[in-house]
Amino acid sequence: MGSLARRPASAAVTRGSRDRVRGGCHVVASAACRLLPLSYVELRWSRVGIATHFSDSALLLSCVNFLDDGDMCLYPAHIRERLVAMTVISPLGLLPRIARGEIIQNISERELTNPEGGGFDLRLGEVFEITDSGHLGIEPRDTSATHSLASVAATPGAAFSFSAGQFYLVTTMEEVSLDRDMIALVYPRSSLFRSGVILATSVTAPGYQGRLTFGLHVAGPFPFIAQLGARFAHIIFLQLDQPATEYRGQWQGGRVSAPEPENQV
Fold first, then answer.
1. All domains in the chain, ordered by first residue
2. What confidence tens digit (pLDDT) does each residue in 86-118 have?
């Protein structure tokens, strides 16, 4: 166990130790963690995938293993409240609702019958290129125009070659429809970054409905070939402690780009 209190940045925490610390700020970490001097602490609680930031410390613990449920009692009350405010919803618990057409639609048979991990895999639906510049102001916005290069609807199962050094927008075959007390986070499958590909994603807000759009950049020196319909990302759903304001942005419905300049909502 690693532990953390009001220590100087040079303080060392021994891997595997279970020493308690002063000040009521005991941070429980896995044996596999690394320490970096910083002006804040970011504790990655792997069981729920939430990063909690709090000040008044000078160490960073980046934990990669699961914490035991019993370890929660070692956190101060205000940290415990923030950790339990959001929890990842088990994919098995969501399956009955998904079968009724809720939460996520057009999901693959594999995910319906045998989901793996803490969420569901998403499939590559369409590929776009950006064709001009964009502008983001305090109120006005003029996003870059896009042109569709390939889609699973037009050529199911076809392979698409993403050129090295190029940036694309990609969309999912699946669509989501989130409750007011739910958000979703999307992560790339490791096959992407193992091939030199970076996937840019964002938080999916409560009340959002539609397919999901991500940025894809081939950062490596070689092209990346993906079959349309292939699983390329993983989505997890988190429950908020209370309903939030529903998404009211202009990307509602899965729009990829704006046809003309507009004011942001």
1. 1-85 (no CATH), 91-263 (2.70.40.10)
2. 689 999 999 999 999 999 999 999 999 989 999
